[in-house]
Design a protein that fits this description.
This protein has 323 residues and is an alpha/beta fold. The chain has a domain of 125 residues. Helix content is 32%, strand content 24%. A 7-stranded mixed sheet has the order 5-4-6-7-8-9-10, with helices on both faces. Strand 6, helix 9 and strand 7 form a beta-alpha-beta unit. Helix 9 packs across helix 10.
């Protein structure tokens, strides 16, 4: 099945069946995942809860890739600033990634062609090999708007492009790392008619803030009523977004489970805080079942991020610790 058809036809009714089928494929073809599943004695799952979730740290030490992947289309590295190195995600078929993030944007925001897409992501560009930069650059190209683009450390260019878009009656969406957005907020730049999507923490450039504090400062300085956030990471090919009040939602081919921090094979029901496990069915050729170092809780129609485990590396993608 091609990625376009697979993503379009995945829904709540067939999700578990497809997840179990993908587990079987990856158990047979991703050697590190097979070894892990055998080690924890979970190699014959009958439900989603039985599936073993690979600790995300394996992406730092091991090639997590399908043995049938005879070439690598894309090679991404995380933006981590910890001492244990950057995660590596090898992408066998870039079409899976491009279809996932493009359909994810449409799912949450509508057609990208209706937007001028602006990006304030200097640290990601500087480090290189960023999946986020690849995704946002694709949005820029897909928008087909002359004003779309990366503005990096040039707020004057961002303001000019923003104002030009408004004159042309185009919607504006701005993807920005937290410290760069705070720079704009402190300068009292009026972006009141834009959708602001913050994508990560301070990267050592500023004092870390809680998400509540960050969003309060951004809303006050940029004149917007809501700050959106992206939940994504190098090891995944799909993203979630918070659309209001900090509550995240994911696309139909993703699922969030909350594990007991003291027993990774037990799961919590809604409203209990624990470790976040992510199923991303777009991760066909690496591992679709990831045990992250994020803390969160699910609610009926989404989930909330509530920080990271104490020993987790500081890294991007909106993982700010709540006070």
């Amino acid at each position: 099945m091609n990625p376009k058809e697979f993503l379009v036809t995945t829904n709540a009714d067939n999700f578990e069946e497809r997840a179990l089928a993908l587990f079987q494929y990856q158990y047979e073809n991703v050697s590190v995942y097979r070894s892990y599943a055998d080690l924890v004695r979970r190699n014959n799952p009958k439900s989603i809860e039985d599936i073993p979730f690979l600790p995300i740290s394996f992406f730092k030490t091991t090639r997590v890739i399908d043995q049938n992947a005879h070439k690598v289309d894309l090679h991404f590295q995380s933006s981590g600033t910890g001492l244990s190195g950057r995660s590596q995600h090898l992408i066998f078929e870039k079409e899976w990634y491009e279809n996932s993030f493009s359909r994810g944007f449409t799912h949450f925001f509508g057609s990208v062609k209706d937007y001028v897409v602006l990006a304030l992501l200097p640290n990601y560009v500087e480090q290189g090999d960023s999946s986020l930069v690849y995704m946002v650059n694709a949005f820029i190209q897909q928008s087909e708007q002359v004003s779309s683009g990366f503005v990096l450390n040039d707020p004057a260019s961002l303001i000019e492009r923003y104002q030009e878009a408004l004159k042309e009656k185009k919607k504006v969406i701005i993807f920005g790392v937290s410290y760069a957005l705070l720079d704009l907020a402190e300068a009292q730049v009026d972006l009141s008619q834009a959708i602001i999507v913050e994508t990560g923490g301070m990267k050592g450039r500023r004092k870390e803030l809680t998400k509540t504090e960050l969003h309060r400062e951004l809303k006050k300085g940029l004149g917007v009523s809501e700050i959106r956030s992206e939940y994504g990471m190098t090891e995944l090919l799909s993203q979630g977004y918070s659309m209001k009040d900090g509550k995240f939602q994911v696309v139909p081919w993703m699922k969030i489970l909350i594990r007991d921090p003291y027993d990774p094979f037990q799961y919590f029901s809604n409203e209990r805080t624990g470790g976040i496990n992510v199923i991303d069915l777009a991760n066909k050729h690496s591992c679709a079942f990831i045990q992250t170092q994020d803390l969160g809780r699910t609610v009926e129609d989404g989930f909330y991020l509530e920080g990271r485990f104490d020993d987790a590396d500081i890294r991007g993608c909106n993982l700010l610790v709540e006070a």
